[in-house]
Every structure is written in C-alpha cells, then in structure tokens.
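User: Predict structure, ligand pyridoxal-5'-phosphate.
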Amino acid sequence: MKLDTLCVQAGYEPKNGDPRVVPIAQSTTFVYDSADTMGKLFDLEEDGFFYTRLGNPTLDAVEKKIAALEGGVGAMLTSSGQAASLISITNICKTGDHVIASAAIYGGTFNLFNKTLRELGIAFDFVEPDISAEDLKSKFLSNTKAVFVETLTNPSLDVVDLEMFAHAAHEHRCPLIVDNTFATPVNCRPFEWGADIVVHSTSKYMDGHAVALGGCVVDSGSFDWTQGDYPMLSTPDETYHGIVYTEQFGKAAYIVKARTHLMRDFGTQASPQNAFLLNLGLETLHLRMRRHCDNAQKVAEFLEKHEKVDWVNYPGLPSNKYYPLAQKYMKNGTCGVISVGVKGGKDGAVRFMESLKLAKIVIHVADARTCVLHPASTTHRQLSDAQLVDAGVAPNMVRLSVGIEDADDIIADIAQALEKV
Ligand SMILES: *Cc1c(COP(=O)(O)O)cnc(C)c1O
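Assistant: Predicted complex:
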C-alpha cells in the first residue's frame, strides 16, 4: 500500500465486532488462564501482552503503523524523543565504546550524548553535518559502535548526506542511526538510503497537534549484528536464560532487545492514552506535511525578499546550500520549519517575535499552529558560544514553525511584525 494509505490504515486490523478505531487498552496487565503460558511469555518463548511496560495493544498498533511508514521490521514507542535517542545508543553501546554524531543535532540530544552518556563512559566525537567522506572515515576508531545524525537538523536545517554517512558507517561495520523527526517518513524514508535505525520525537509532526510527548525507535532489520562487534546482541543474555537475540529473533534482534532488555530496565514506555492520540495525528500526517511544506515554501520566499531580513535558511529555497541534497532526499518537501536571521541582532529577533500576533512564542515546533522560538535564549541556552556556532545557532536566529493555517494570514502576520523591527 502507498504511504498515504498506511498513515490512515496500517497497524490495526479489526476483526468481526471489534471497535473500528484503535481502542485504548488502559490496563497495566493482561489475563492468562495458566501460569505456564505466563512463564513462556516471560521467557520470550511466546508472543503476547502481559505488562504494559513491555507491550500493550494500543502501543502495538501504533508501533506497527510507524514501522510500516518507515519500512522497518519493528518499532517501539517511548515516553519521549529523548528516551528513543537514549535507547537507540545504549541498546548497542556500553562503557568504553565510541559513537560518531553530527554536531548539528537537537540540543537535548546533544546534552544526552555529550554529558550524560559521556559520564557513563561512552565517548562521542561530534562532526560537522557537511563533513567530507574522507574526513568522516578518519573519525572511526576500533571501538566505534554507531553513527548518529538527523535527516534535517533542528534548528539549523542542514540536510545530511544520508548515503555518504551510511556508506562510511557500513565500511566500519557500524549502523547508521537517523533522527527523522523533522522530515517524517512522508518526506524521507532513511532506510531507503542505507540507514539502519530510525528514531523519532513523535511529539513533533507525527502527533502534530502538540498534545502528547512521545518517541519511537524503528529497526530496518537490515544490519547484520553478527558481522560487527555487538556482543549484547550476539552473545547470551543471562537475564533471559541465555537467549542470543540475533539467533532467536533474526532481523528483529535490535528492536526485540530494545524492548525486552532496555524497556524492561528503563521503563520509559509510552502511555496507551498518548499512543491513541499519536495515532490520530498519524492518520493525517501525509495531508499535514504537504500543507506545512507548501506554506513554509511561501513564507520562506516572502522572507528572502524582505529588507528587514538578514538571511533565511530553508532547504526548499534554490539559493540554499542544502537545496541539492534536499532535492535528492526530500523531493516532495522538507518540513515546515524555517530559520530566519532578523536584522538588528538579538534585539531585532526578540522585537520581531514579540510583535507577532497569530504566531505564538512557544517551546515547541512542528504542530498545526504557527509558532516561533529564539533558540539562543531558550532551547540552546545551555550551550557555550562555540557550541552554538557548531550547532548552527546564530544570536539573531528565529526558528519559525509554519503551521497549516492559510499562508496569506501567516505572511500578513510576519509582515506586520517585521515592520516593527
Ligand atoms: C524534540 C526533539 C527531540 C526530543 O524529543 P522529545 O519528545 O521532546 O523528548 C529529539 N530530536 C529532535 C530532532 C527533536 O526535534
């Protein structure tokens, strides 16, 4: 089936007399008539729900939908995008391992990697998103276990050369993990370009209405964990009577371990209520993404010609450095987020934002309503000046998340606010 159909229908197939809509299974636990069946579920010998931390029918339907949208073998919902990124790395890395990550990633992901995971003994090297293949190859060490990038970086909107990163990673028998939050599978399916694992903050376009935090890890099933150095997947797990994930679960080894090991231990599961809301968002994801992209294109073109604007960064503009890569990887559009440098430095940026009426100042992006944010003083305020430059955040940068209202109204609001700068 085509992607638009998968958005609406995938993941849930009601049987005779079942509810038409994915029901909310608001239950922590599930009933079985024998202790033996329960034991088999615990030992991963049988498939079934027994405790919502490890699986739940509502979550399961949404996980199947996202796996279908990305073209993966399995997916796991998490309580937030942060939890998805945490699990994507710790599922295959431990103390003493090394990860190569793009420097231009979401501020929260950067802190998770550069502080918390570093303190736990995982080393990170951050590279520019437009690094050359040769320089990238020189960053691999004998203990490198993963490469992590964002398709479209938040907030600098760099487009990463996915094939180049995947190729370099695979040459070193490492998986490429891609945060596909901004592009969504409607605009880019990283597995088609060689990525092995995808993570999402579903709190953004997937939910799309700013109602539920959430995340997701998706497994392509295409990485051969027995070829690289991944003992966590290819040697016995004593906490499950010595099962070997790659032997027992084959192509789904990574995503099964993420659930049975890390979700069991970390407990960062999504709630059934939030999964239900996420599913409502997914049902219109294809429609909304198109509208976000159409509106953002119009707004970006308007801003580019405006005298109060220093620069506009939107990969849909032919003048953009990343336009060729965006055409290759996201030919139907990128996302609704634009970053813009307003004249007058930080003060100009703040005056512009505070003069907007329809667009509200919020710590969020990628929902139906147009909103703005000043990264240097909010989401990225914990970064040093040098780190801000690395993350592509200028002091006068305003991140504009273009919603799905009428483009004329959005542009009129921006025009009147720019007059006040
Ligand atoms: C928001 C975001 C995250 C973190 O997600 P939460 O759901 O807020 O935890 C991760 N990656 C990207 C690209 C994001 O935009």
